[in-house]
Amino acid sequence: MYNLDTRKHALALLDQGFSQNSVSKQTGISRAAIRSWLVQIEPLEYARGRECPRCGDAPRPPDDPAAYSYLLGLYLGDGCISATRRGVYSLRIACADAWPGLINACVDAVQIARPTNKVCLVPSQGCQYVTCFSKHWPCLFPQHGSGKKHHREIALATWQQEVVDAHPWEFIRGLIHSDGCRITNWTTRVVGGEQRRYEYPRYFFTNLSTDILGLFTNTLDQVGVQWKNTNGKNISVARRASVALMDAHVGPKY
């Protein structure tokens, strides 16, 4: 009666913490059908994916390391991984509705990471959760753990650091797209006795995790971008040459 996309959407809502009754009201699906999907013996098709590059006898880097470096930045900023009732893991990355290009880029990066698994959008107030189910997410993101990221240690595995070192701008772009922005500041100056407005662009990155801030600033150092930590949780890039570098490789959200 219900197609696969409808079933996946309902189960994704349950994984977010909605009750069966709430999901039934939101989707129009009967509670009996929802209960049957929770206890079914056979997993849904999207839970069956090929092994990830980290699971073989000889683990290797991701098949597309540049796309992975971008996705790693998105995950560290606005992503989470949760175990589900069906023995697989749900990766969810929150993307604001204001940036449809970012949503599409996130979907593409997740799909590249798990090409045989379905990527879906779960709407929430003001944002879309880019969602994908796979048993391999903890392999690809060993930073997964209980609790909020800023309450636990966040460090890259050796193979992840090698990916970031090879593709630093993609990692920076993912972090900016998640917890950063490009804005135009302004000030006034007196020129020839006349008060004039002066505008200048700058980038900001804000995160409560000192470990994630360190990963961001270390990578900025690697590519020659000058930065300042303004209040312990906010990184500012304002020097003209550094902003130009960021514009060339990152750019504003879209």
Describe the structure.
The mean pLDDT is 88. The radius of gyration is 21 Å and the shape is globular. The protein is 42% helix and 23% strand. Helix 4 packs across helix 5 and helix 4 packs parallel to helix 8. It has helices at residues 4-15, 20-27, 31-39, 65-78, 100-113, 137-140, 158-166, 168-179, 210-223, 240-249, and strands spanning 79-83, 89-96, 119-124, 127-134, 180-191, 194-206, 228-229, 234-237. It has ten helices and eight strands. Among the domains are: 1-42; 170-249, Roll (Endonuclease I-creI).
Which short descriptors sum up this protein?
254 residues, alpha+beta, Endonuclease I-creI, four-stranded antiparallel beta sheet, 10 helices, 8 strands, globular
Short summary:
With 254 residues, this protein is α+β, with helices and mostly antiparallel strands. The chain is built from 10 helices and 8 strands. It has a 4-stranded antiparallel beta sheet, with helices on both faces. Strands 5-6-8-7 form a 4-stranded antiparallel beta sheet.
Secondary-structure map:
Layout: H1 4-15, H2 20-27, H3 31-39, H4 65-78, E1 79-83, E2 89-96, H5 100-113, E3 119-124, E4 127-134, H6 137-140, H7 158-166, H8 168-179, E5 180-191, E6 194-206, H9 210-223, E7 228-229, E8 234-237, H10 240-249
Antiparallel strand pairs: 1-2, 2-4, 3-4, 5-6, 6-8, 7-8
